[in-house]
Amino acid sequence: MMYRFIFFLIYYQAHISLAIQEPNPRVCVIGAGISGLSVARYLKEAGINFTVFEATRYVGGTWRYDPRVRVDENGLPLHTSMYKDLRTNLPKPTMELPGFPLPDEAPSFPSWETYYEYLKSYAKHFDLEKHIKFLHQVVSVKREENYWRIKHKQIITREIFEEEYDFVVVATGHHSKPRMPYIKGEWDFKGTIIHSHSYRTSEPYKCRRVLVIGGGPSGMEIGLALTDVCSKVFHSHHSRVNFRTPFPKNYVKKPDVTQLNETGAFFADGSFEEIDDIIYCTGYEYYFPFFDQSSQLRISKSSVTPLHQNLVNINQPTMVMMGLVIRACFVIALDAQARYTTALITGNFSLPSQEQMMEVWRRKHDLLRAQRRPLSHIHSLGWDEDEYYAELTRESGIERVPPVMSKIRASDTRAILENLLTYRQYSYRVLDRENFSRTWEGSRGDEPKRESCIP
């Protein structure tokens, strides 16, 4: 009987080895954007002792529009990439945080103003601000023995504080450090060059010839927005996406830029165009300046590895990295990650062993290599999005994200491919966990009105 008891004890101890064993763990959350607010809600509901550190005076992260660029009033880099006319590219049902719907009067694809007010209301409704230390910038995250030493600076007084935490939730996002390409002759170009991170409005580009570089969501949205005011928009990208949009006459698709000179750009097809301004829509780098080697993460410009479930630091499983998924219903994914993280911290489930987590990660890594895909794709959910939510539930026991959400995203993606100018005229409504309805709310002839640039 004694041997059976000892065997059971050893098995049980091994099983819980990667569960959070502190009876009341102290949790540090870095960032009060949508990721930080989401996890703060569930930590609060679970009675966990946590603090959110936010370097600005505001909640909402990148969803807060700021007309300034580069730095804020305190000399810190601006993290928001919001521009004046932005609307979501995912419909309303996929932008709602569970249990807190967007206002009924909000359009199917809300503006940044509507969504920012929604996030502020979310923080107020769940009484989250009392857990947030505003104007506190995390400057160092170090693993020491069995805890995390967090160093943070009060922005106004410059006072430095150090505290110990059992768990770290990194919720700073990955849209704050622009990825800037190098193009030969860039320093010779006499026009303006910015990254989309600093794009705020189309007004400065009225009746100008603008080159947009990059074919991702921002590149397509900004490129089309500029056709409303520009005399010509040259859009350089090599995206394989087959957009069927009837582009305006002043929109010209171009191949990669090979070189710039004082007045314009040369392209891979040998052509040259006179250019007044250039906007790089070339994405962002993963950037976490507060880490040192003790995190045991490999951070490159395009990936953060190794992560279990695109979330848990395999080498240091008391750290999670929220919001590093792409090609997904981002808000829905964040909420699922927040619930999973809370279940982990409260000890509601045990992680697989480090060896098991690493083996799963390696298989995913090796598959990418076999398919000759870049490591950045390790963060992509795409058509596997619903299975990702199923895996989170199987492992942690959290409530399953309804499959209808990924179905709505798939429908929205098809509408975007059909017509970038009109896809927001669809309205989506959830019928049940599996089904939704889609209603067209415009007329087929609807297109934006464009200003004339005739001298």
Which terms summarize this structure?
single chain, 455 residues, alpha/beta, FAD/NAD(P)-binding domain, 2 domains, 5-stranded parallel sheet, 9 helices, 25% helix, globular, disordered N terminus
Structure report:
This protein has 455 residues and is α/β, with parallel strands linked by helices. The protein folds into two domains: 24-177 and 285-405, 3-Layer(bba) Sandwich (FAD/NAD(P)-binding domain), CATH 3.50.50; 180-280, FAD/NAD(P)-binding domain. It has nine helices and 24 strands. It has helices spanning 2-15, 34-45, 92-95, 112-125, 217-226, 330-345, 354-370, 385-396, 404-418; strands at 26-30, 49-54, 132-134, 136-144, 147-154, 160-165, 167-170, 177-178, 192-195, 209-213, 232-236, 251-254, 257-260, 264-267, 272-274, 277-280, 284-285, 298-299, 304-305, 307-308, 312-313, 319-321, 426-430, 436-440. It has a five-stranded parallel sheet with strand order 3-2-1-7-22, with helices on one face. Strand 1, helix 2 and strand 2 (49-54) form a beta-alpha-beta unit. Helix 6 (330-345) packs parallel to helix 8 (385-396). Residues 1-20 have low confidence and may be disordered.
Number of strands: 24
* N/C terminus separation: 95 Å
- Beta-strand percentage range: 15-25%
What is the overall shape?
Answer: globular
Q: Biggest sheet: strands side by side, in what order?
A: 3-2-1-7-22
Helix content: 25-40%
Which residue ranges are poorly predicted, with pLDDT under 50 across at least 5 consecutive positions?
1-20
Based on the coordinates given, report the CATH architecture of the largest domain: 3-Layer(bba) Sandwich
CATH H level, superfamily name of the largest domain: FAD/NAD(P)-binding domain
How does the helix and strand content classify structurally? alpha/beta
Assembly state: single chain
